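We emphasize that the prediction below concerns an isolated chain of 134 residues; any contacts that depend on oligomerization or on bound cofactors are therefore not represented. The input was used exactly as deposited, without trimming of termini.
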Amino acid sequence: MARMEGLVVKRVMVHDVEGILPYLGGRMQLVSGNCIEEVLFAALLSVRAFERKTNRARTLGGELLLRLAGTHQIREAIKLRGAGTGPCYLVVFGSDEEARRLIRRFGMEKLEPEHCDEAKLKSLMEKAALVETL
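Result of the prediction step, given as a token string:
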């Protein structure tokens, strides 16, 4: 789990993604990610884009998907980085308590986060940052 003020990222096992997605809203997102560092970096860039008013998506969750996928097309981003059944990262632009409630409500199991090696992480971070310049 990674947590910063107003941002929580947890790796979870998802069994019923279709049942969860309607409850997420714009401040929560389930994504597929290579490692927690990649997801956390993309989440931070998403927050910064909204602060600077350079966001491409209407919600923080949508912006996160765009940055992880390295595209401006939300449909493509969902296809590339949207959640599926299995291990995913739950990103909550809010409190740890909100994340815990969602995990309990949908019976998700908490998993240990995956970590990227430095070389792989560099290219993943560059892709997330590229959305700013495309």
